[in-house]
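User: Design a sequence. Structure:
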């Protein structure tokens, strides 16, 4: 898969009709909470457990009848997350990057990140249980632990050892870095610890 940065998400990459288009979003909110009263949470970042047992981001394939990438992504969010998805409405300003995959099928993917209030994000989590695709395409939402515990493995390093779909792991790390959701040195340490 080749990554393409800032490739005009409004119109896509214009690769041709044989490419399916997809959009996914990292939803996040600042958090004042601490784990066990001492480990700062800093930010809540959502991913989802997919129907295939892999972790990914909310979103999916854009229907040709969707007016734009963002309209298609917002439709997918409503299906997967329910009515709380209105607070997570994605616009072209939330765009981060694009990528292309040739095998096993041709896909043009677009990745976004949307900051929400913690209250709206928690409301979205509660409402997701009643979404159209809950229990079908989406098995549930998961919060990404943005810390490393004293043992050097617990938290983000252990989370990164999960099975991710496509580029979801790379997109997570890219977003954590470019959005400043985690100090760069801590992010690098977590990645290194996950590879041991």
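Assistant: Done.
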């Amino acid at each position: 898969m080749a990554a393409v940065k800032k490739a005009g998400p409004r119109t896509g990459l214009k690769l041709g009709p044989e490419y399916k288009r997809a959009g996914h979003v990292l939803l996040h909110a600042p958090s004042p909470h601490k784990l066990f009263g001492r480990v700062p949470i800093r930010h809540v970042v959502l991913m989802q457990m997919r129907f295939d047992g892999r972790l990914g981001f909310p979103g999916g394939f854009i229907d040709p009848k969707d007016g734009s990438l963002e309209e298609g992504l917002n439709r997918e969010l409503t299906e997967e997350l329910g009515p709380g998805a209105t607070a997570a409405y994605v616009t072209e300003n939330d765009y981060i990057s694009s990528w292309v995959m040739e095998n096993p099928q041709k896909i043009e993917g677009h990745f976004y990140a949307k900051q929400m209030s913690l209250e709206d994000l928690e409301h979205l989590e509660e409402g997701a249980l009643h979404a159209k695709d809950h229990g079908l395409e989406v098995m549930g939402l998961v919060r990404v632990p943005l810390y490393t515990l004293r043992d050097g493995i617990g938290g983000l390093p252990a989370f990164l050892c999960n099975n991710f779909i496509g580029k979801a792991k790379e997109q997570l790390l890219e977003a954590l870095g470019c959005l400043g959701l985690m100090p760069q040195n801590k992010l690098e340490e977590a990645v290194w610890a996950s590879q041991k």
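The first strand starts at residue 2 and ends at 5. Confidence is low (pLDDT under 50) at residues 1-11.
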